[in-house]
Amino acid sequence: MTLHMALRNLLTKRVLLFLILGLTVFSLYLYFYVGTVNVAEELGRANLAYYVAAFVAFLAAIFFSCLAWSGLLRNLSIKVGIKRVILYMWVGLFFDATVPEPGWSGDLSKAYMLAKSSKQDPGKIVATVVGQKIIIMIITVVDLALGIGLLATTYNLPIASTAVLGFLALILFITIFALFVVVYLSAKPKATKRMLNWLIQAASFLRRNRWDPTEFRSNTEKTLERFHEGMGTLAAEKGALIRPVAFSFASWGFDVGVVMLVFASLGYPIPVDKVLIVYAVTGTLQSIGVSFVGFTELIMSTAYSLLSIPIPLSFSVTLLTRVVTLWFKLLVSYVAFQYAGIKMLLSKDTPKDHEKEPGMGNHPLQEQAISTRRDLCGSSLRD
Fold first, then answer.
1. Nearest Cα to 119, choosing from 342, 369, 354?
2. Among residues 212, 183, 213, 182, which one has the least CA distance to residue 197?
3. Minimal CA–CA distance to 231: which of 143, 135, 139?
4. What CA–CA distance (Å, rounded) separates 214 from 220?
């Protein structure tokens, strides 16, 4: 089975379950609590020009995120064209939008597929992905802290809403803790080696010692060694991080701009502080992987309502925003995922003369690619 087919099978049932449950809960909440007529009236007033600009702002946010990743790749002397970076960035976004897990599926998927297609060092590529993740998490922490500060000092919330501040403070703590763990593991090779040993011991126990982890351990330790070298290089060359950090802030700015343009499209004065608060909450939930269809919509619309925005308008803004940031993203990223899968299949059709035999010193990713190509070529000859 090819990587593309395996990933597609992995996504199908579980993703459909989460989509159906999330949309059902949100639809029931909309129907019984808000009223579809009120929301339809708000949506009918949308200004198309502003709403189209929201799509443009979203694409700009993705593009600047690609520039940030490309800059980190260049800092580690990984020569990959911007078109390939954009392609696998969108592939990663597809996994982010469809796989319910703690916020790493998209990052690891785009790193793996880029390493597989470009034959570049996977350890260093993972280092760039983790480096970008750290930058994004820092921006998220600052944004969330700013949002909590505005919420606590600017708005007179009801006493019951102090629970909301407690919830946000908990999210902030979890985000800071997650950031600390990522930075610690990235800077401490011994810590990652201990984690690898624990994972191998757990896998050996589950498979009742029917698995010899020697080769896996050796290959993984080499990849981790290159990963830590890459992280060390990124941390040492602080001047080279200026452009990736600047591009990341630009991406964040355009992402916030999407929500502001949605408010403008509905003819409502843009509440910059309220947008920052809600974006901080939803962005944080997304960064830690708590961003399911239906759940995010409920959080957004409820947060706007608590900030004195009319309930029908809150739902209208939420729906229009999620069309851009979820459904449009899902459509484009799915096309990118299929295109990347086709490219990988076509690249396996004919073995290269210069490739070595499996087991003769190739990297595991290269050996897997060679083996798959030969299987495909053998089956085509039999046909």
1. 369
2. 213
3. 135
4. 10
The whole-model pTM stands at: 0.78
pLDDT of residue 87: 93
Closest CA to 247 of 114, 147, 131: 131
Instruction: Give the rounded distance of the alpha carbon of 84 from its chain centre.
Output: 17
Look-up: residue for tokens 């946000």? Answer: 168
41-50, pLDDT tens digit by residue?
656 777 889 9
Identify the CA nearest to 262 among candidates 73, 114, 56.
56
Choose among 325, 280, 278: nearest CA to 304: 278
What is the rounded CA–CA span in Å between residue 114 and residue 318? 34
pLDDT digits (tens, 9 = 90+) for 277-320: 888 777 777 666 655 556 677 778 888 887 778 888 888 888 88
- Tell me how far the alpha carbon of residue 113 is from its chain's centroid: 15
Please answer whether residues 80 and 89 qualify as being in contact, where contact means their C-beta atoms are separated by less than 8 angstroms: no
**Which helix H or strand E contains 155, and what residues bound it?**
none
- Residues of the chain short of pLDDT 70, as ranges, are 1-43, 100-103, 155-162, 209, 286-295, 347-383
Q: Give the DSSP letter of residue 323.
A: I
What does the domain layout of the chain look like in residue ranges? Answer: 3-331
Q: What is the distance between the alpha carbons of residues 253 and 248, in angstroms, rounded to a whole number?
A: 9
Element (H, E) at 351: none
